[in-house]
Amino acid sequence: MMFKLNIITVSLLAMSGSVMAANFGVGQANTESVNMEKYQCKRCVSETGYSGKVTLLTGYNSPDDLHAGNALGTAEDGAIAAISGDLRYLNSTGYKASMQAHQLGLDNGFANLKVGKSGLYELELDYQAIKTYESGDARSQLWQNDGMLTPSVYPNQFDLALQREKSAIGLSYDEGRYNTFVRYSQEEKTGTQSASLVAPLPTNFGLPVDSTTKQLDAGASLAGDNWLTELSYFGSYYSNNIQDLSLPYLSDVYSAAPDNQAHQVSLSGQYQLDRTVMSGRLVTGRMTQDDSLIQMSGNPLQSWDGEIETLDGRFAVTSMLSNRLRVGASVDHSKRDNKSSSWEFTQYSYNALSGAFKQNVPQDIERNTYKVNASYRLASGYRVQAGFDRKEVDRSYSEREQTDENNLWAKLNVTAFDKLNINVKASHGVRGGSEYQVNELTSSEDNILMRKYYLADRTRNALELKFNHSPLSWVSIDLTGRYALDDYDATIIGLTESKDYGYDLNISLQLSKNLIAYGFAGQQWIDSIQAGSQSFSSPDWQADIQDEFINLGTGFSYSGLMEDKLTLGGDYLFSNSISDTYLEGSALVGSDLQYGDYFSYNHSVRMYADYALSPKMALKLSYQYERYYDTDGAQVGINTVPGLTTLGELNHDYNAHQVMLSFSYLLR
């Protein structure tokens, strides 16, 4: 059993500390003179036997494009069938079982089975299938068969899709204050994804995927009156069934992902002292990878002998100093010690073999995060919160070895008004660090004025407003607005400014006893400015990148028709994303260099009619429609660009339909 308490739970524990110390618990009440029969809960009855629902589904699928399978649950064309269910069993002695299933038989579905005895033990079996679709019209001039890539003037067509099947078994044992658990899972990942190699020109091809990931988790926990602790182990084992790929005239031109392992041991605990709660966690880990390397001229290593040791720790404390004031603080430490092999390798330049030697350098990363916060109730319905966060990062062998981020924030919660809640949060953050050294540890092809955005100095100001209002008993409105400005004031070449702002609006309507409706709208804008240099010196061009995202939706449910036997409903969703890039500058005069834009939209409609044949049986007819379109300027034909072989234009433009008839049977 995992003991994980969120901040709300911790706060409740802290506020209840004085009561618990005085021991005014229900278990201490004197009930000898109370007639319990008069106070029995007439509705709190645990029904024994079987209960639940089983649903059989059958229908017709017309995806028109493989990508539609992401929304329809399967990309199969034609008749489809599946089964869903939610079954439960309980007997008078406490033995119980439950089974849940969702669309088993389609490409995306899951099943879960639990059996055990209440308050003692539980055995769990789990299965999940997830398939993601990218394109059904990818083409390659490299035919792959059993590790051999064979060039051909006639491209072969294949699907870009990944299938994951994960099965797991877990057992937990609970005996009062002592709990243990163990869980083993295995995931099989198959399919085809895009990859590229230089042979001798840049060529894209379909890379087969066939890998297995095994996961073993186990732990034990012990709890007392005001404390708890847990010792856990987490192990991951990855094996790739695809070997290195070769060309007919050249062996091992593409290296397969190597097998690897990762292990972690975690010790965590929590202690409550009156109105103060302290918690801590210490995690040590080790990741290894020792597969053989492809042998080539200039490579002195037979295997990589990769090893990374990790150490993570956290200590947090929160305390109620008074009925109005609560304070908290936390310290997080994370260290990544790379102990992998290092050796001197011959370096390649753009033109020829330089003859110089350079040693690969294993990078270490260490992070420390410090947080302090306070919450004070000004008056009934008014609470103010404030905090300060600091994050320090040390990276060895990096352009910038040290960065530090300081963030100051404040929040005001107002619940004093009837049917109205308001939350306002503002923050100001600054990132700085050690001297930025471009040429010392990076490629000489980098401009010395260029700064990577995640290492560069940055000032961030952000504001967020949340608004919840119920003007009428049948209307609920939620509105969230946010704005953030990132200023990279020390960057000459690179990302110099970014604005991120938007809103989310949700409306729920109870129009009548039988009619429920909802609607939502959300938009986000991200405006970025990037400076560059075509002459490898000072900035001579600028890119203004404008990204926009829109999500709209509405729906309804109307019940009570035909003597309360028929329920009608529908949902409509619309999403749209646009990315435009505008270039200007002296380096572009007389040049046709322009970035391609990206545009996509999606319309989705779902309608259903649910009819009760009897108190235990029901029929449901549903229809789903999707209209999807996207166009990406980066997508080009197989040989459109001289010297570059792609997988073709993988944009989408389709209409997809699905009709489904389901029969449900209620066991109780």
Automatic annotation (TrEMBL):
Record carries keyword Signal: yes
Keyword Signal: yes
Signal sequence annotation: 1-21
Record keywords: Signal
Superkingdom: Bacteria
Pfam families with a match to the protein in the record: MtrB_PioB
Protein name, entry field: Outer membrane protein
Organism: Shewanella woodyi (strain ATCC 51908 / MS32)
Lineage: Bacteria, Pseudomonadati, Pseudomonadota, Gammaproteobacteria, Alteromonadales
